[in-house]
Amino acid sequence: MGAPLASSGFVWLALSEQARRYPIAIVKEARRQLDAVMVVKRELATTVLNGDEAAKRLAIFLGFHVSHDGPGQQAFSRFGRRSLARHLDNDPDLRIPIGEGFAVALGYHHEAA
Question: Torsions phi, psi of 98, nearest 5?
């Protein structure tokens, strides 16, 4: 989502329970779509709702993050992904109130691993 000529955009993904049975295909397609969008965008944003552990894991695995350095930086390893997930869970400053719960905003940039 976003203006076609804007350098940034907002992405979201909804999957059926049946689609969740094909995690490798989901990751491959999500990466393909992100690569296509990043041809014209410099950065993307998304939110993950509290309690949606599958969405949080996918976003982190795809390279979404909350800062450029420190514990919120993009994760390139299993240890890094676990560390980022813990950071998202434990830092109340990252929480955006939504109704009775909250969401966490994440960003995405093409960066070399």
Answer: -140, 110
Q: What is the DSSP letter of 7?
A: S
CA–CA distance, 76 with 1 (Å, rounded to integer): 26
Question: The whole model's pTM is what?
Answer: 0.89
Structure tokens at 84: 């980022």
The dihedral sign for the CA sequence 102, 93, 88, 48: positive
Q: Which amino acid is residue 56, in one-letter code?
A: K
Cα-Cα-Cα-Cα torsion 63, 66, 48, 25, nearest 10 degrees, comes to 0
pLDDT in tens, 56-98: 999 999 999 999 999 999 999 999 999 999 999 999 999 999 9
Ramachandran category for residue 19: left, alpha or beta (phi over 0 → left; psi -120 to 50 → alpha) = alpha
Go through the chain and tell me how many residues it has. Answer: 113
> Is 44 in contact with 108 (CB distance < 8 Å)?
yes
Q: How far apart are CA 98 and CA 95, in angstroms?
A: 9
Q: Reduced to 3 states, what is the DSSP secondary structure of residue 47?
A: strand
